[in-house]
Amino acid sequence: MKAAKIFAIILLVYLGTIVVFESLLAYFQPANQSTLIISVTDEQGEPSDRVVARLESGGQMYVAANHWPRAWYRQVLANPNVQITLDEGRAEYLAVPVSGAEHDRVNRDNSLGIVFRLLTGFPPRYFVRLDPR
Questions:
Q1: Contact at 8 Å (CB) between 55 and 129?
Q2: Chain centroid, CA 64 distance in Å
Q3: Are the beta carbons of 92 and 83 closer than 8 angstroms?
Q4: What share of residues in the chain are helix, strand, coil (percent, to 5)?
Q5: pLDDT-based confidence at residue 106 (cuts at 50, 70, 90)
Q6: Which of 28, 40, 70, 75 has the greatest number of C-beta atoms within 10 Å?
Q7: Residue 22 and residue 19: Cα distance in Å, rounded?
Q8: Domain coordinates in residue numbering, the chain
Q9: How many CA atoms within 13 Å lie on the side-chain side of 67?
Q10: How far apart are CA 80 and CA 113, in angstroms?
Q11: 3-class state of residue 51 by DSSP
């Protein structure tokens, strides 16, 4: 019984750590040279900006849904016409979800460390290729 209580406490602390980490990332949206801003349209037709990591693989540009909160990813699936803001400015792109061998290659080329995966609670990872329009 005591072991079960200790396990439950550890599990709750871990889940709390994930919620706090994800919430802080969503609130602050840290940006740097390896990030970009993706502008998506929500269900009401309103634009919404999100800072995401810029990934590269095979000469193509990608972004990944690496976290449990991923409203922007669902919005991209519903409306793949997005705007991307990079150092060079803002441009129109078509967001193409990837799967299979392409997904495996992008994941291998842009692996995540164990600490990040622990802090985010090991969410499934989805990729979108950004094709210029």
A1: no
A2: 4
A3: yes
A4: 40, 35, 25
A5: very high
A6: 40
A7: 5
A8: 2-132
A9: 21
A10: 29
A11: strand
Q: List pLDDT tens digits, range 7-53.
A: 999 999 999 999 998 888 777 887 877 899 999 987 788 888 989 98
The rounded distance, in Å, linking the Cα atoms of 13 and 83 is: 38
Rounded CA separation 70/80 (Å)? 15
CA dist 60 and 55 (Å) reads 8
> What 3-state DSSP class applies to 132?
strand
Tokens of 21: 């980490």
Prediction pTM value: 0.84
Q: What is the DSSP letter of 67?
A: S
Size of the chain, expressed as the number of residues it contains: 133
Question: Is 15 in a helix, a strand, or coil?
Answer: helix
